[in-house]
């Protein structure tokens, strides 16, 4: 008999980010319920008060004034998301599934970053992001 442990893993691990603070979620919903320029300003205020909110960064990217503004918000959300994943056990491989609602803010930021990178001519960055998205969730991320 061997003293070596047996790995009974069924494959790559899946990381699920924790639920966001409900107060931040409520504030973001209220900000998104406004309209026009007020909406972007209200979402930016949520980001400023809760800079770890990946949903807020994704929303700010969606509301960007131009491609570079959107690119910047998505990029910050992407990096904040990598930090959150690492803090929750992700070690650079494994799944981060869209089906988990708490993962969607990060995945939206990455999808947005890929789209904006393509728009500004950063083709290699756009392709890396798209490849990474497929590695994180091979079932695919819905279009924005």
Report on this structure.
By secondary structure, the chain is mainly α. The protein has a single domain (22-136), classed as Alpha Horseshoe (Serine Threonine Protein Phosphatase 5, Tetratricopeptide repeat), CATH 1.25.40. The protein contains 6 helices and no strands. It has helices at 22-32, 36-49, 54-62, 67-87, 104-119, 123-136. Helix 2 packs antiparallel against helix 3 and helix 5 packs antiparallel against helix 6 (123-136). The longest helix has 21 residues, at 67-87.
* Percent range of helical residues: 55-70%
Number of strands: 0
Task: Label the structural class.
Answer: mainly alpha
Helix/strand order, N-terminal first: HHHHHH
Question: Quick check: average pLDDT?
Answer: 93
Question: What tags apply to this protein structure?
Answer:
0% strand, mainly alpha, 144 residues, Serine Threonine Protein Phosphatase 5, Tetratricopeptide repeat
Strand and helix layout:
Layout: H1 22-32, H2 36-49, H3 54-62, H4 67-87, H5 104-119, H6 123-136
Helix pairs in contact: 1-2, 2-3, 3-4, 3-5, 4-5, 5-6
Briefly, what is this?
59% of the residues lie in helices and 0% in strands. The protein contains six helices and no strands.
